[in-house]
Amino acid sequence: MPELDRRGRLLVLFICCMSLLIVGLDNTIVNVALPSIGRELHTSMSGLQWTVDAYTLVLASLLILAGSTADRVGRRRTFQTGLVVFIVGSLLCSLAPSLGWLVAARMVQAVGGSMLNPVAMSIITNTFTDPRERARAIGVWGGVVGISMALGPVVGGMLVASTGWRSIFWINIPVGLLALLLTARYVPESRAPHPRRVDPLGQALVLTVLASLTYAIIEGPNAGWSSREILGFFTLAAAALAGLLGYESRRREPLLDLRFFRSAPFSGATVIAVSAFGALGGFLLLNTLYLQEVRGLSALHAGLYTLPMAAMTVVFAPLSGRLVGSLGPRLPLLLAGAAMALSILPFTLLSAHTSPAWLIASYAGFGFGFGMVNAPITNTAVSGMPRSQAGVAAAIASTSRQVGQSLGVAVIGSVVTSGVHGSMATHFAPASHVGWWIVVGCGVSVFVLGLVTTGRWARRTAADTAARIAPVRAATPVGARSA
Question: How far apart are CA 246 and CA 249, in angstroms?
Answer without folding.
Answer: 5
